[in-house]
């Protein structure tokens, strides 16, 4: 089955750029979606189809995807960005199954 | 406004059953794939099951195959998850989520309902 690998944690100072990676075999051939989850809340979609943003999500959130790594980039990080972030793809080779990465805790120093 | 509201969670003994419901509003329910996603306490997100718009296709994570059944009633704008033979490892918050397409993102999520499997 398809596996997505994320670093458990990333730390960044306010105003800096955070990069959260999501590794998977030839993930560049798939559409990657990213979710933000704050404690006690449901996940929120922040990037879809590798680099598009839903309405209401700041331009600070972006995401390239190529080769074996997709990246969620958060520019000018704010305290309110502190959360868990998950990448997600559909494993089209395996009966429309959905795969989530293990999640990355973003800490704003 | 799109809303997804789950219900039906609670405490159940190992081997027991529970039926979760998700009431959808604010969009044409019958036009979307729908999914259940769960999150065990302190753990990450885990996809559980998908169902196509007309219910003709259903997919499950291996760990729940044969025990859980996803279904929908488009006339009632409702999604369901029948959970049988529950195990301690099924303890989690269960979210229903709307998919933007067959391979799309989950653009709307419910607030979740907690299922606790314990004796």
- Proportion of strand residues of chain A: 35-45%
Low-confidence stretches of chain B: none
Instruction: Count helical runs of chain A.
Output: 0
Largest interface, with Cβ-Cβ < 8 Å? A-B, 26 and 23 residues
* Total number of beta strands of chain B: 11
Compressed to H and E, one letter per element, the order of chain B equals EEEEEEEEEEE
What's the overall average pLDDT of chain A, rounded?
Answer: 94
Q: Could you give the count of β-strands of chain A? A: 10
Strand content of chain B: over 45%
Mean pLDDT of chain B, nearest integer? 96
Main pleated sheet of chain A: 6 strands, mixed
Helical content of chain A stands at under 10%
- What is the global morphology of chain A? globular
Largest sheet of chain B: 7 strands, mixed
Relevant terms:
heterodimer; A: 109 residues; mainly beta; six-stranded mixed β-sheet; 10 strands; B: 119 residues; seven-stranded mixed β-sheet; four-stranded antiparallel β-sheet; 0% helix
Secondary structure layout plus pairing:
The complex is a heterodimer of chains A (about 110) and B (about 120).
Chain A: E1 9-12, E2 18-23, E3 33-37, E4 44-47, E5 61-62, E6 65-66, E7 69-74, E8 83-91, E9 97-100, E10 104-108
Parallel strand pairs in A: 1-10
Antiparallel strand pairs in A: 2-7, 3-4, 3-8, 5-7, 6-7, 8-9, 8-10
Chain B: E1 3-7, E2 10-12, E3 18-25, E4 34-39, E5 45-51, E6 58-60, E7 68-73, E8 78-83, E9 92-99, E10 106-109, E11 113-117
Parallel strand pairs in B: 2-11
Antiparallel strand pairs in B: 1-3, 3-8, 4-5, 4-9, 5-6, 7-8, 9-10, 9-11
Give a structural overview.
Chain A has 109 residues and is mostly beta strands. Helices cover 0% and strands 43% of the residues of chain A. Chain A has no helices and 10 strands. In chain A, strands 1, 3, 4, 8, 9 and 10 form a 6-stranded mixed beta sheet that branches. In chain A, strands 2, 5, 6 and 7 form a 4-stranded antiparallel beta sheet that branches. Chain B is an all-beta fold and 119 residues long. Helix content of chain B is 0%, strand content 51%. Chain B has strands at residues 3-7, 10-12, 18-25, 34-39, 45-51, 58-60, 68-73, 78-83, 92-99, 106-109, 113-117. In chain B, strands 2, 4, 5, 6, 9, 10 and 11 form a 7-stranded mixed beta sheet that branches. Chain B has a 4-stranded antiparallel beta sheet with strand order 1-3-8-7, with no helix packed on it. The model of chain B has no long low-confidence stretch (mean pLDDT 96). Classes of the chains: A mainly beta (109), B mainly beta (119). Chain A binds chain B through residues 1, 31, 33, 35, 37, 42-45, 48-49, 54, 84, 86, 88, 90, 92, 95-103, and chain B through 35, 37, 44-47, 50, 57, 59, 61-62, 95, 100, 102-107, 109-112.
């Amino acid at each position: 089955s398809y596996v997505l690998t994320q670093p458990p944690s990333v730390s960044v100072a306010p105003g800096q750029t955070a990069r959260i990676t999501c590794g998977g075999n030839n993930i560049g051939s798939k559409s990657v979606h990213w979710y933000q989850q704050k404690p006690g809340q449901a996940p929120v979609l922040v990037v879809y189809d590798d680099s598009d943003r839903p309405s209401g999500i700041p331009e600070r959130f972006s995401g390239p995807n190529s080769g074996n790594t997709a990246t969620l980039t958060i520019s000018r990080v704010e305290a309110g960005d502190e959360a868990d972030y998950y990448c997600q793809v559909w494993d089209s080779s395996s009966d429309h199954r959905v795969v989530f990465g293990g999640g990355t805790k973003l800490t704003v120093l | 406004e799109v809303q997804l509201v789950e219900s039906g969670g609670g405490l159940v003994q190992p081997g027991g059953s529970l039926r979760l419901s998700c009431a959808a509003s604010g969009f044409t329910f019958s036009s979307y794939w729908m999914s259940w996603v769960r999150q065990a306490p302190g753990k990450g997100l885990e996809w559980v099951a998908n169902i196509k718009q007309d219910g003709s296709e259903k997919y499950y994570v291996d760990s729940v195959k044969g025990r859980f059944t996803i279904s929908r009633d488009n006339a009632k704008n409702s999604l369901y998850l029948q959970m049988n033979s529950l195990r301690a490892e099924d303890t989690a918050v269960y979210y229903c989520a709307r998919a933007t397409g067959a391979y799309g993102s989950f653009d709307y999520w419910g607030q979740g309902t907690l299922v606790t499997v314990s004796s």
